Amino acid sequence: MFIKKPQNKHLFLVALILIIGSIASCKVARFVYYNFADIGDHKKFPSRQLHNDGPKFVFHQTEMGKFPKNIKIYEQGEVPFDQYLEDNNTVAFMIIKNDTIQYEKYFKGYDQAAIVPSFSMAKSVLSILIGCAIDDGLIKSVEEPVTNYIPELKENGFDKVTLEHLLQMTSGLEFNEGYGNPFGEVATFYYGTNLRKATTNLKLKRAPGTAFEYVSGNPQILGLVLERALKTKTITAYLQEKLWQPLGMEYDASWSLDKKKNGLEKTFCCINARARDFAKIGRLYLNKGNWNGRQIVSESWVKQSTKIDTSRGSASYYQYQWWLPTKKGDFMAAGILGQYIYVNPAKNLIIVRLGKNKGKADWQGTFIKLASTY
């Protein structure tokens, strides 16, 4: 079909801009354009800023840190540790023992001040905020049905879905976590511009409390619960109040939104920060929610969040938005491209790994192996 070009060049340009704009606003078009989540995604979405204008907490440093010069890899034998990290697309790696940085290196052009998106590590941060909201009396308990905060979900059968079901990923949510599907729910949540509507449209596929299934819809529902519990305060403002300032974060950060005006935080992902500040999240839980004498979140919440619990359909390796690598009390936050905060309380150890992707490394196994050397 031949379309005659308008004689008025200005009208033609306006029409062209409108067409491009309408395409750009389409979720599928954005999915195709951006293709897949990557380490530069903090530049793609609108966000709310996090600040700490108060004192900064800085880990001690040592020139003679205890860390492996080499690491044994099953397929390759023993290789230099730095090479192992760089070959597997790491951009930041930290090992912190007894509040002292034993190892801190950056790769691929990144440095200490480089921003990296958290991806699903944000789920663990959200869990902390839920605990804070319970401590503050904004949320009564994890036994509350989600419909106490999101009554719109009653018509979708969520009356028996509790906040704990959402925290443990046992809600029975119908949610396509396939990142390669532009029409799936995860694409709607990541690239869409109306998270509140998308969240209240969710449905169930099984009875809650019967099986574990890791899907990002659960923490996004929790995000909407938290937003409504906070009422006039944004989730980012609450994060700044409860964590960013009290923990003495060294850098400003941000939390990505679904849209610029009156946007909702993508609470299943997308806190954009630096390695050193991610490490402070680990330090908080290493110290059972206490920060230099101040209880930021209750010790009982930290214990409940990171204990092995297989009751009511919960998995032995996952609790309140935290992964449990072994049965020895260690736990970690994890993101899709290989972003990790690993905590081993028995060794008083924190490891942070950030990367462009996971590479070919078994990072969980690497952390466990490193912890065994201390």
TrEMBL record:
Residue ranges constituting the Beta-lactamase-related domain according to the UniProt record: 88-355
Xref: InterPro entries: Beta-lactam-related (IPR001466), Beta-lactam/transpept-like (IPR012338), Diverse_Enzym_Activities (IPR050789)
Gene3D superfamilies in the record: DD-peptidase/beta-lactamase superfamily
Protein name: CubicO group peptidase, beta-lactamase class C family
The species this protein was found in: Pedobacter steynii
